[in-house]
Specification:
By secondary structure, this protein is mostly beta strands. The chain has eight helices and 57 strands.
Length: 925
C-alpha cells in the first residue's frame, strides 16, 4: 500500500491542546469506516486499549505504521476546579469536632496539655452559647489550730471546687486579715493561708477566693481565739528529805495549782504566777490499801512540777515547762516540793513529818534543769515519775534530788492478772518456752525492769496521730481525732507516686498487706532537727505520713498536700509490715521486711529500726538463724508491727521465724542540744522460742502482738492464741483457734473492767475441708471462749480466705459492737460483719462484690456519729453508717488495695499495690 503524503492529516499543535476541536465528528466517521465489510480487522485489536487504533490496514493511508492514533480526548483536559473551598470546609469541620471533644469530653478540672487547651476553648464556647461561667465555690475552710497564741503561726486550709487565683481571710467586719497565701497543688484548688496574730483576737473569720477578677466570700466561718502566752510558772517549794531506803515509782495525779500560797509562820501571801496545771506525785494506789492511803494524805508532801499547757497551742519549746514524754534515762534536776498543806499525798515513809520538814530552809527560787525531750506541739497530760533514793541525813537530801531519775510511768488502770483455766493450760498442747538473751539460754528468767503497758488511751504521751498498726497497744482502730463530716462523701485530696521491685517470684508494686501508714505530728524542735526539707520544716503543725512499701522504700509525705517531706529510706528489698513510731514522739521508726530474693541478688531479711533525725539505721534484727539466734522456723520475714513500752523503753514484736522479741532499747536522746540533737541506742535483744504439738512452719507469727500491763497477746500460723507473762517470758494460757491466725488480735476493756480478746481465723490448712472461718471472743484473763461466730469461706492456698483483715473494736456510739471483714465467703466476694460484743450476734452485714484483705477503719465525727470505711481489692472505698450498715458513699481508686488505711481527723491515707501504684489522701467530707 502506497503512502500518500497529500492524504496526511494536519498535526495538532500544542497551542490547540485546550481547544475544543470543531471536527468532532471525524472520529466517529473513522470508527464507522473501520467497521465496513471491505475492511479487514487487525489481528491484535484490544477492546480495552486506552487509545483507539485503526481497525483496518487501509487506514494506514492516514496513519502510517508506528504512529498512534490520538483522539480529541488525548488533548483535552478538564479545567481546574475550586478545590480550596472543600479543603477549607474540611478544616472547619475538623476544628468543630475537636472543640466539641475538648468541651464535652475533657473534664473541666483536667490537668496537663488538654486541660490547658480546654480553658480558653470553653470560654469561647460559653460566650457563644450565652452561658455564664460558674464561679468558684469554697468546699472546705478549716484550721488545725482554732485556739492559738499571739506571735505564733496559724495556718488555714481552703479547698475550692475549681481553680482560683488567690485566697484571703476577713474578719466579721469585712476587714482583710493580713497573711500569706500559698497554693498547694497544680489544680490551684487547695490553698493555705498563714496568719501571725500580733494582738489577741476573738471572733469569726471568713475565707474568700479570687476567681478571675471577682472575690467570692464563704458564708461559713471559723471561730478563732488567739490569746497571749501564759507566763512561765514560778513554784516556791521545799526540798524533800528522805528517811528510809525504798525506791518508789509513784503514779501521777493532776490537780489545779493554787494561785497563791500563805506562809504558815508569817501569814503573808506568797505571790505565784498561775500555771495551767501542776503534776503531783502520789504513791502507787495498787500497793497501798485505800484506808491507809486516806490517812497518809494529811501528813505527806510531794514533788510539784508544772507540765501542762493548752493543747495544740504552742509551737516553741520553753525549757522551764516540759512535756512528760520522758525517756527512762532522761535526767532532770528538781529541788522543790510542795508544802504540806497542798493537799497532795505521798507515802509517809518517803518524807519527813510536818514538824521535821519545817526545819528545812526554803529555796529562794525554783531550779529546773532538764534534758527532757519536748515531744510535740501538744503538751502531754501523762506525767513523769520521780524515783527518790534514800538520803542518809537531812543535809544530803537536797543534793540527792539534783540527780533524780525520771521515767515515764504507767497510768492508773484497772487491775488485771491472767491465769490458765483447765482447758487452756499450755501443757494440754505440750507447749514449752525457752528464753534467750542473744545466744545464751536464760534459766528461770525474771525481768528486772518490768514492762507495764497502759490502757490504750495512754499508749502515747501526747495525742499526736497514728503511731502503730491499728493505733495503740489494744489494736482497736487506726484513726486519730474526729472528723467534721457533713456530706458523707469521700474525695481524692492528693495522690503520690510509688514504685515497684522485681523479685524472684514476680514484680511487687506499691503498698501491700498490711501496709498501714503511720501519721505523726512532730514538734517544732524535732522538725528543725530532722532531715526534712526546708519548705516542710516551716509547716506548723507538720503531720508526716510514713509508709513502708514493697518497692523497698520507706516514703515520707505531708498529710496536707501529699508532697514529699524528705527523701525515702531505700532498704533495697520489699517491705511488708506497717510503720511504728516511738509513742513518746522520739524520732524512732520501726518496720519489717517481707522478701529477700530479687531477680539478680539475695540479701538479708529481718526487722529494721531507724533514726529519723538523719535516717541512719539503729538496729537490724536478723530473721534467719545465726550464731546469736536459735529458732525452729526458717522464714525470716516480719509481717507484724511492734509496740513500744515507754515505761521501760522496750520494743515488743513477733516474727515469722516463730520468735517473740522484747528489745530493751536503752535510748540516749540528747534533745536539749537543739543545734546538734543526737539519738543512739544500745539494744539488748531478748526472745522467747516456743513450740507445742505443731510443725516448724506453723510457728510463724504473721500478725502483730497486743499488750496490756505485763501481758503480751499473740497468735501464730497453727492457730495458737497465747497470753505471755513478759516478766518471766512464759506462756500463761493457750487457746487453739483451729487454723492460721493472720488478723491481729484485739483487746477491749469492758464496763466491769474485765478484758476481752477478739480474734478470727483464715481458711488455710487445718480448716480447708470444713471451709469455715471462725470469729471469737475470749476471756483475756483465762483464754476461755466467750462466744464464737462461724462464716463459710472458700479455701485459698495464698492464705487470703477468711479473716485476713484485723477487726475494729467499737468505741463511743459504737461501743457495743465489733467489726470483722471475712474474705472469699461462700457466696463470693467478701463480707463486713457488725457483731454484738456480748454474744456475737449479727447486728448487720454488708456483702462486698470484690475480695478484700484490707482492715476496716472506724471514723468518729464531731457530731457524735460514727462511720466504717472498708476498701476492697478492686480499689473501691465504701463508707457505711456504723450503727445501721447503710452504704452512704463510695469512691473508686485506680489500682488494687491490700493495704489498710490510717485516718487523721478527716483525712484518710491508703495505698494501692498494682501497676502504676499510688498513695492517696482522701478527704472525708
Amino acid at each position: 500500500m502506497s503512502y500518500n503524503q497529500n492524504n496526511r492529516q494536519p498535526r495538532n499543535r500544542r497551542s490547540d491542546r485546550h481547544k475544543r476541536p470543531d471536527g468532532g465528528e471525524r472520529m466517529q466517521e473513522v470508527r464507522r469506516a473501520s467497521y465496513s465489510e471491505d475492511n479487514a480487522p487487525l489481528p491484535l485489536n484490544d477492546p480495552f486499549e486506552r487509545f483507539d487504533r485503526p481497525t483496518s490496514y487501509d487506514d494506514y493511508d492516514s496513519f502510517p505504521p508506528g504512529t498512534r492514533l490520538y483522539t480529541e480526548d488525548d488533548y483535552y483536559e478538564d479545567e481546574p476546579r475550586n478545590r480550596w473551598i472543600f479543603v477549607l470546609m474540611g478544616i472547619v469541620g475538623l476544628a468543630i469536632i475537636l472543640i466539641a471533644l475538648l468541651y464535652f469530653v475533657v473534664p473541666k478540672d483536667s490537668k496537663g496539655i488538654l486541660g490547658t487547651v480546654r480553658k480558653p476553648v470553653a470560654g469561647v464556647v460559653d460566650s457563644i452559647l450565652g452561658k455564664e461561667e460558674e464561679k468558684a465555690k469554697i468546699v472546705k475552710f478549716e484550721t488545725a489550730e482554732p485556739y492559738g497564741l499571739t506571735g505564733g503561726k496559724n495556718v488555714f486550709t481552703i479547698t475550692t471546687d475549681k481553680s482560683v487565683q488567690n485566697v484571703r481571710i476577713r474578719n466579721e467586719n469585712g476587714d482583710i486579715i493580713a497573711g500569706t497565701s500559698n497554693v498547694m497543688d497544680e489544680s490551684r484548688k487547695l490553698w493555705t493561708y498563714t496568719v501571725v496574730f500580733e494582738d489577741e483576737f476573738e471572733g469569726v473569720v471568713y475565707a474568700g477566693v479570687l476567681d478571675g477578677e471577682t472575690w467570692i466570700a464563704d458564708a461559713k466561718g471559723i471561730q478563732l481565739n488567739i490569746t497571749k502566752p501564759t507566763a512561765e510558772p514560778v513554784v516556791v517549794t521545799q526540798p524533800p528529805v528522805i528517811t528510809q531506803a525504798p525506791v518508789i515509782t509513784p503514779q501521777p495525779i493532776i490537780t489545779e495549782q493554787p494561785p497563791e500560797e500563805k506562809n504558815t509562820q508569817s501569814g503573808e501571801t506568797i505571790e505565784q504566777t498561775p500555771a495551767p496545771a501542776v503534776i503531783v506525785i502520789d504513791a502507787d494506789a495498787t500497793s497501798i490499801p485505800k484506808a491507809q492511803e486516806e490517812d497518809k494524805q494529811s501528813q505527806v508532801s510531794a514533788v510539784v512540777v508544772s507540765t501542762q499547757a493548752p493543747e495544740d497551742t504552742q509551737d516553741t519549746f520553753n525549757e522551764n515547762v516540759f512535756s512528760a514524754s520522758v525517756m527512762p534515762t532522761a535526767q532532770i534536776s528538781i529541788v522543790q516540793v510542795a508544802p504540806d498543806d497542798s493537799g497532795i499525798s505521798m507515802p509517809e515513809s518517803q518524807l519527813l513529818s510536818t514538824e521535821e520538814s519545817s526545819n528545812v530552809e526554803q529555796a529562794e527560787e525554783p531550779v529546773v534543769e532538764t534534758t527532757t525531750p519536748y515531744i510535740a506541739d501538744t503538751f502531754a497530760t501523762q506525767t513523769p515519775v520521780v524515783q527518790v533514793e534514800q538520803a542518809e541525813s537531812q543535809e544530803e537530801a537536797a543534793p540527792k534530788a539534783q540527780n533524780t531519775v525520771l521515767s515515764t510511768p504507767a497510768p492508773v488502770m484497772p487491775s488485771f492478772s491472767a491465769a490458765a483455766a483447765d482447758s487452756t493450760k499450755p501443757s494440754n498442747k505440750s507447749y514449752k518456752d525457752s528464753v534467750f538473751l542473744g545466744s545464751k539460754l536464760q534459766k528461770n528468767y525474771s525481768r528486772a525492769d518490768e514492762l507495764n503497758m497502759p490502757a490504750p488511751d495512754k499508749y502515747t504521751t501526747y495525742a499526736g496521730g497514728v503511731f502503730t498498726f491499728r493505733g495503740d497497744n489494744f489494736r482497736r482502730n487506726a484513726a486519730h481525732g474526729e472528723a467534721n463530716i457533713q456530706r458523707k462523701q469521700m474525695t481524692v485530696m492528693w495522690e503520690a507516686d510509688l514504685g515497684s521491685l522485681r523479685t524472684s517470684s514476680g514484680t511487687l508494686y506499691g503498698v501491700g498487706w498490711t501496709g498501714q501508714p503511720a501519721i505523726i505530728k512532730w514538734s517544732k524542735e524535732l522538725r528543725e532537727a530532722m532531715n526534712i526539707t526546708e519548705e516542710k520544716k516551716a509547716v506548723s503543725p507538720l503531720r508526716e505520713v510514713i509508709v513502708p512499701a514493697q518497692d523497698g522504700n520507706v516514703y515520707f509525705f505531708d498529710l496536707n498536700d501529699g508532697v514529699a517531706t524528705r527523701k525515702p529510706i531505700d532498704v533495697g528489698f520489699p517491705l511488708k509490715s506497717s510503720a511504728a513510731i516511738d509513742p513518746q514522739g522520739m524520732p524512732v521508726l520501726a518496720f519489717g521486711q517481707g522478701v529477700s530474693k530479687l531477680t539478680n541478688k539475695t540479701g538479708d531479711i529481718g526487722f529494721y529500726v531507724y533514726n529519723l533525725l538523719n535516717q541512719e539505721k539503729l538496729l537490724f534484727i536478723n530473721g534467719r538463724k545465726n550464731k546469736n539466734q536459735e529458732q525452729y522456723a526458717t522464714n525470716g520475714a516480719f509481717d507484724g508491727t511492734p509496740l513500744f513500752d515507754r515505761s521501760s523503753d522496750t520494743m515488743i514484736l513477733g516474727g515469722e521465724n516463730g520468735l517473740l522479741y522484747t528489745v530493751k532499747m536503752n535510748t540516749d536522746f540528747d534533745f536539749a542540744n537543739a543545734d546538734g540533737m543526737k539519738l543512739t541506742v544500745t539494744p539488748d535483744v531478748l526472745y522467747q522460742r516456743s513450740k507445742g504439738k505443731q510443725d516448724n512452719p506453723s510457728l510463724s507469727i504473721e500478725s502483730s502482738v497486743a499488750m496490756y500491763g505485763k501481758y503480751i497477746f499473740s497468735a501464730d500460723k497453727q492457730g495458737f492464741v497465747r497470753c505471755i507473762d513478759s516478766t518471766t517470758m512464759q506462756t500463761v494460757w493457750l487457746f487453739d483457734a483451729g487454723d492460721n491466725t493472720d488478723a491481729t488480735v484485739a483487746l477491749d476493756l469492758n464496763q466491769d473492767d474485765s478484758l476481752s480478746l477478739y480474734t478470727g481465723t483464715t481458711v488455710f490448712n487445718r480448716s480447708r475441708k470444713k471451709g469455715e472461718a471462725v470469729i471469737r471472743s475470749l476471756d483475756a484473763s483465762s483464754g476461755e471462749e466467750n462466744w464464737k461466730f462461724t462464716v463459710e469461706a472458700k479455701y485459698d492456698k495464698s492464705e487470703r480466705a477468711g479473716c485476713k483483715a484485723s477487726p475494729v473494736i467499737g468505741e463511743n456510739i459504737l461501743s457495743n459492737y465489733v467489726y470483722f471483714t471475712v474474705n472469699s465467703v461462700k457466696e463470693g466476694g467478701s463480707r463486713l460483719y457488725c457483731l454484738n460484743k456480748n454474744d456475737g450476734s449479727v447486728v448487720w452485714q454488708l456483702p462486698l462484690k470484690e475480695e478484700t484483705v484490707s482492715s476496716p477503719v472506724a471514723v468518729y465525727a464531731t457530731d457524735g456519729q460514727a462511720y466504717i470505711i472498708q476498701a476492697d481489692s478492686s480499689g473501691l472505698l465504701t463508707m457505711v453508717d456504723g450503727l445501721t450498715g447503710q452504704t452512704l458513699s463510695t469512691l473508686k481508686l485506680s489500682g488494687q488495695i491490700d493495704a489498710s488505711p490510717a485516718v487523721y481527723d478527716d483525712i484518710l491515707v491508703i495505698g494501692t499495690c498494682s501497676k502504676d501504684p499510688k498513695l492517696y489522701g482522701i478527704r472525708l467530707d
